[in-house]
């Protein structure tokens, strides 16, 4: 009887602890606590079985029904669980550090009560119904263990579904609460033109309630490798927080050997309007809800700073343009000749950044060597005009989507209804447009419009500024018969061909 009781108690304790952990959120601290307390749980189960033994000897509750047995087991185990912190409290008397942990005994029991209840339920079930009666014979015990191997996956499946449901519900409630309070999950990021690296010196966000928070990019004030204007580079940590209403940032421009500082309000309402609503994106034949999740700060020569809102999908929107002032940082520049990585005041570091091909590719270094910095260029890229895209396609095809990248580093994707019904609005000059569709035979096709910068900017200038057109359309025409696709800027009788390109047929397996 003793051997069977001990084996049964160990099985009951292990199975009950596993099931309890399976119903909880993943928490290493909880797993560690369950492991440390397992001897006590085993001891509780042994007492349960031996108490049953003495109970039968004394003819107490010799023939209990299932409900009585469950109630008796539950009370027994719950009392044992609640006794555990009391024993820890008493056992640590004399050890000031350990005893202080259990000093507020009532709060500890209250906090642990949900776990005690769950554990007591599982201990009761396995003891009173499964193992408790199985110890009458080894054959029955084997059958019960086989049955348990079937029961465990069911318990875990139920626990996992329940846990996922509660997680999803909790996440939805948190998102709704965060949006209401103006908090979003996002990160800041730096950007710069490839040829003109920068490094953050100091940066501060000011939030709506005037809280000020310092930030850095990556793990320190590092530079971007092979950066591209408008693209997300080194970033701050991603976390749920308010959006900034102001920014105070000081950076160093290596090519100019100059510090710049912007201390300015930002368009908080525009940021919040974008971050508050998800948008739909389409990939292949599936739709996804996407969100804005980054604030990208672009630093260009001349103290130009542009801020964009970036997203998890294929959208990016400019928030504003800011002009920095040159500032002098009093910290002396180190002339020791010894390279100190990421030290802005070390001349060898400044020299290395400009010559490092991982930062500025050798081809870019050769193109800009001995040439003046093109001040004003990044403002030219921000030119916008009042236009909309239209699409003329053969009747037998349907465009899947049209992915627009603009020279001002904005991005937008048209698909389904937005392909045919989009309004005139201020938009940048397109840098690349990728149209994708399937022909009548189900073959994947595409047209890649890669616009020449100089030619396209001149054509936009002539069309809108010199010809005084207040608005216009860019008509994308796809001709399956000639295998040609064209992009034409037009307004009534005024037409300017921007680009003609070949249609690419990828086939069904693409």
- Outline: elongated
Work out the radius of gyration: 34 Å
Number of helices: 12
Distance between the ends: 69 Å
Mean pLDDT: 84
Tell me the count of domains: 3
Relative strand content: 25-35%
Number of strands: 21
Main sheet record = 9 strands, mixed
Unreliable parts: none
The proportion of residues forming helix, as a percent range, comes to: 40-55%
- How would you classify the helix and strand content by structural class? alpha+beta
Strand order of the largest sheet: 15-14-17-18-21-20-19-13-16
3D architecture notes:
This protein is α+β, with helices and mostly antiparallel strands and 510 residues long. It has 3 domains: 2-178, no CATH class; 183-374, no CATH class; 384-507, no CATH class. Helices cover 40% and strands 30% of the residues. It contains 12 helices and 21 strands. It has helices at residues 2-22, 28-57, 66-91, 96-101, 105-134, 138-181, 268-276, 347-355, 362-368, 377-380, 417-420, 453-466, and strands spanning 183-191, 198-206, 212-214, 239-242, 246-253, 258-265, 279-283, 286-290, 292-300, 304-311, 316-323, 325-327, 384-392, 398-406, 411-415, 425-428, 430-438, 444-450, 472-479, 484-491, 494-507. The strands form 4 sheets. It has a 9-stranded mixed β-sheet with strand order 15-14-17-18-21-20-19-13-16. Strands 4-1-9-10-11 form a 5-stranded mixed β-sheet. A 5-stranded antiparallel β-sheet has the order 3-2-5-6-12, with no helix packed on it. A hairpin with a 2-residue loop joins β20 (484-491) and β21. α1 (2-22) packs antiparallel against α2 (28-57), α1 (2-22) crosses α5 (105-134) and α3 (66-91) crosses α5. The longest helix has 44 residues, at 138-181. The radius of gyration is 34 Å and the shape is elongated. It comes from Pedobacter gandavensis. Keywords: Membrane, Transmembrane, Transmembrane helix. The chain crosses the membrane at residues 6-23, 30-51, 71-94, 115-135, 141-159. InterPro entries: DUF2931. Pfam families: DUF2931.
């Amino acid at each position: 009887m003793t051997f069977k009781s001990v084996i049964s108690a160990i099985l009951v304790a292990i199975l009950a602890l596993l099931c309890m952990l399976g119903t909880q959120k993943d928490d290493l601290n909880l797993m560690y606590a369950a492991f440390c307390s397992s001897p006590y749980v085993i001891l509780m189960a042994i007492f349960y079985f031996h108490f049953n033994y003495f109970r039968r000897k004394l003819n107490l509750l010799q023939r209990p029904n299932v409900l009585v047995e469950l109630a008796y087991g539950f009370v027994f185990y719950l009392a044992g669980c609640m006794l555990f912190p009391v024993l820890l409290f008493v056992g640590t008397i004399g050890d000031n550090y350990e005893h202080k942990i259990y000093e507020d005994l009532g709060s500890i029991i209250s906090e642990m009560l949900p776990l005690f209840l769950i554990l007591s339920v599982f201990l009761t079930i396995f003891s009173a119904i499964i193992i408790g009666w199985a110890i009458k014979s080894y054959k029955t015990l084997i059958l019960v263990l086989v049955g348990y191997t079937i029961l465990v996956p069911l318990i875990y499946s139920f626990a996992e579904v329940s846990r996922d449901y509660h997680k999803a519900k909790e996440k939805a409630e948190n998102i709704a609460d965060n949006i209401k309070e103006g908090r979003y999950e996002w990160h800041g990021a730096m950007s710069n033109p490839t040829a003109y690296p920068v490094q953050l010196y100091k940066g501060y966000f000011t939030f709506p309630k005037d809280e000020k928070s310092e930030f850095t990019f990556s793990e320190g004030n590092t530079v971007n490798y092979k950066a591209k204007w408008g693209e997300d580079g080194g970033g701050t940590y991603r976390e749920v927080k308010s959006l900034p209403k102001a920014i105070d940032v000081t950076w160093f421009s290596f090519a100019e050997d100059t510090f710049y500082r912007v201390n300015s309000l930002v368009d908080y309402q525009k940021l919040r309007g974008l971050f508050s609503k998800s948008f739909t994106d389409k990939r292949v034949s599936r739709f996804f809800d996407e969100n804005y999740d980054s604030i990208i700060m672009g630093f260009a020569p001349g103290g130009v700073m542009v801020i964009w809102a970036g997203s998890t999908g294929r959208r990016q929107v400019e928030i504003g343009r800011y002009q920095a002032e040159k500032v002098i940082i009093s910290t002396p520049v180190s002339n020791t000749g010894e390279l100190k990585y990421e030290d802005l005041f070390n001349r060898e570091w400044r020299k290395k950044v400009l010559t490092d091909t991982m930062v500025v590719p050798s081809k870019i270094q050769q193109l800009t060597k001995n040439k003046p910095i093109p001040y004003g260029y990044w403002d030219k890229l921000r030119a916008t005009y009042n236009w909309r895209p239209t699409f003329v396609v053969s009747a037998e095809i349907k465009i899947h989507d049209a992915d627009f990248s603009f020279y001002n580093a904005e991005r937008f994707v048209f698909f389904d209804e937005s392909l045919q019904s989009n309004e005139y609005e201020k938009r940048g000059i397109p840098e690349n447009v990728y149209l994708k569709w399937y022909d009548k035979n189900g073959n994947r096709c595409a047209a890649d419009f890669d616009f020449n910068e100089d030619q396209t900017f001149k054509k936009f200038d002539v069309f809108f500024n010199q010809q005084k057109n207040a608005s216009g359309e860019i008509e994308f025409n796809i001709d399956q018969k000639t295998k040609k696709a064209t992009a034409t800027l037009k307004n009534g009788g005024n037409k300017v061909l921007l680009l003609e390109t070949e249609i690419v047929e990828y086939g069904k397996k693409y």
